[in-house]
Amino acid sequence: MNLLQLLANGAPAPATNIEDVFSAYTYTGNGSTQTITNGVDLTNGMVWIKSRSNAVDHEINDSVRGWTKVHHPNTTDAQYTADRVAGISTGFNLTSGAAGETNFSPYTYVSWSFAQANNFFHVSSNVKAAGVDKTVDLSALGTVGMVAVKRTDAVGSWYVFHRSCTAGKLLYLEQTAAEATLGHITVSGTTLTLEDGVIADGTYIVYAWAHDDSDTGLIQCGSYSGTSAAGNVVTLGFEPQWVMIKEATGASTGGWFTFDNMRGMPVGGVDAYISANASDAEASPLDLISPTATGFNLQYAGGSTNTTGRTYIYLAIRRGPMALPTVGTQVYNANLRSPGSGATTTITGVGFPPDLAITKSRTNTFHMFFYDKLRGGIARLVSSSTESESDVNTNYLGANAQTFGMDGVTIPGGYSEFGSVSHNFLDMFFRRYPGVFDVVCYTGTGSSHTENHNLGVAPELSIVKERSNISSWEVDATGVDKHGWMEITDAFSAGHNSTFTSTGIVLSGSINNTNGRTFVAYLFATLAGVSKVGTYTGNGTTQTINCGFTAGARFVLMKCTSNIGDWFVWDSTRGIVAGADSYLKLASTDPESTDDTIDPDNSGFIVNCVEASLNQNANGRTYIYLALS
User: Fold this and answer.
1) Which end of the chain has a smaller Cβ tally under 10 Å, C or N?
2) The pLDDT value given to residue 349
């Protein structure tokens, strides 16, 4: 049962939303001061920072020891004092970071923020006195998943308990060694004990994470066995945004591989990983892990994450957002770009970390390009073409590590379709949100099966494209009980290629399901006041399309399903006004055109019949639309 179903059934909502207690946030150092606003209240919590671009130590700061106290998870060093990080109620502040570990220009960084919260994360400082055990109450976690203990007043190892390790055995966070019988710490139920006579007397920091496998749990700590084959499935019940994996047993051992979806954890592409036990810069040579709607798959056949006969432990954190959006600006925004310089351009001001970016030259005959975070930044698809995802030029969107950022995207220079000195551009951004929009990547089986999604309701508009081969864009429109195509203007046909539930896409036969081939599905639904997937019948004059909005539509996608007609796109950034409006077409490379087909209305939009041949409001014809407020 998913979150929306729980709420509909009257069950209590989760105690916390993942976005309130955790953030994976990427940024570039500036050598001065900057504030990282990630929405996590860090007046009681921990921040873990690592340079992605350079080989420097990890840095961990927390509110319990005091923000000026620093230690490194990749060393046994005692803590030291450095005024570089300070938690605030909406994130944290950075000072100069001259040592390069937190804010050195032009290094790139990732920060992982953990707020102390029930059933999620605990941090405390504890003194182990001579001659007695020291016990720590972890009952607020519910079930203890993983604990890391480090002496702060002297050199000492990081002792790690994980619920899936062999009973009585621990791991070292700063080492690649396999689990061993150490005895320094033990966990019984929800009580952690620093064992007298084994662990040295002194002051220790305790970081502890929960294991919560309830329907709305935010975090899980588990294990899997390696298979040395791609597609080793781990089921969590949610899509993860952050995963740490460590080989616990085996003839050889591996590091603490750490992945997150902001740095890049795509389905079918190479993954950006950082080793928690090493100072190495970020690496991404292999396709190691692929998130799914209900967990993750181990893709690489061997290595330090998936070797036969070895056991691996993991800590996985749920992807957000979990709550329903309340306004359209949480889901969709757009940007106009004037002629570029031909150099790399960073677009900010989107208002959220985008999951889907669509870009089009307004002034020249180029394709409209689709990129999404789940497939990886350089993986383009073209709405007016059947070409496969493999037809990718590395100069396209995503040719550097910061493509999908916290507030926009970075577009590389050197290619006219993205940064020409003579073109104007439209960039449209969408964020995955329950009830409105989701993205699913999957591999076909050739037989009937269900692919899970996290939309929370049955999709009303499904757009599916095969990634690995030349194929059509398959569109299912449940409101008109028809299916069609996006790269051509043909009328829709009766029936559906797939059926949909609130949790899955039910596939049958080989349509959107060819064995061994990869696909992406963009799923949309109606949420009151935010989005509307609907239909109407043209009247040959003018009519108001009531979407249930209060301040009008900011985005409208429309297609005639009963007759030939293109997919038309309007947006308020270019202008939905009482008069001529600019539009683009998905099935065409044409530059932007202008007419008065659409006008604003607070409830949604007004559609006019400017010319029947344009198929936007012709009398008696059927239309489908997607509108966002």
Assistant:
1) N
2) 94
In angstroms, the CA 78 to CA 150 distance is 9
Paired tokens of 158 = 């990081």
Q: How far is CA 540 from CA 20, 353, 544, 608, in A?
A: 50, 41, 13, 8
Q: How far is CA 23 from the centre of its chain?
A: 11
* Res 14: pLDDT: 41
DSSP state of 299: -
* Tokens matching residue 370: 């689709």
Other beta carbons within 10 angstroms of residue 98's beta carbon come to 12
pLDDT digits over 271-308, tens only? 999 999 999 999 988 899 999 999 999 988 667 899 99
Q: What is the DSSP string of 353-419?
A: --SEEEEEESSSS--EEEEETTT-TT--EETT----TT---TTSTTSSTTSB-SSSEEE-SS-HHHH
- Give the number of other CB atoms < 10 A from CB of residue 55: 11
Q: Per-residue pLDDT for 9 more than 50?
A: no
Nearest residue to 262 (alpha-carbon basis) of 374, 397, 344? 374
Q: Is the pLDDT reported for residue 397 higher than 60?
A: no
> What's the confidence (pLDDT) of residue 183?
96
3-state secondary structure 350-369: CCCCCCEEEEEECCCCCCEE
Q: Closest Cα partner for 331 from 527, 88, 516?
A: 527
Residue 10 has pLDDT above 60, yes or no: no
Closest CA to 58 of 94, 22, 109: 109
Is it the case that residue 591 has pLDDT exceeding 80?
yes
- How far apart CA 446 and CA 516 sit, in angstroms, is 8
If one compares 325 and 423, the residue with the highest pLDDT of the two is 325
CB atoms within 10 A of CB 104: 20
| Per-residue pLDDT at 11 exceeds 50 | no
Q: Give the residue among 155, 169, 154, 513 at the shortest CA–CA distance from 313.
A: 169
> What is the distance of C-alpha 81 from the center of its chain?
34
Backbone dihedral angles phi then psi of residue 20, each to the nearest 5 degrees: -80, -20
Is the pLDDT score of 2 beyond 90?
no
Nearest to 527 by CA among 472, 458, 610: 458
Q: Of 619, 120, 607, 614, which Cα lies nearest the Cα of 320?
A: 120
Q: In 3-state terms, what secondary structure has residue 134?
A: strand
> Mean pLDDT throughout 71-96?
96
> Both tokens of residue 574?
């270019």
Beta strand segments in 399-494, E: 409-411, 425-430, 437-443, 449-452, 461-466, 473-477, 482-485, 493-494
DSSP state of 140: G
Q: Which residue is listed with tokens 């889901």?
A: 331
With contact defined as beta carbons under 8 Å apart, do 542 and 563 qualify? no
Whether residue 353 is preceded by a cis peptide bond, meaning omega within 30 degrees of 0, is: no
Q: Which residues contact 333 (CB under 8 A, 6 or more apart)?
A: 350, 351, 352, 428, 429
- 269: pLDDT strictly greater than 90: no
Overall residue count recorded for the chain in this entry:
629
pLDDT for the residue 377: 75
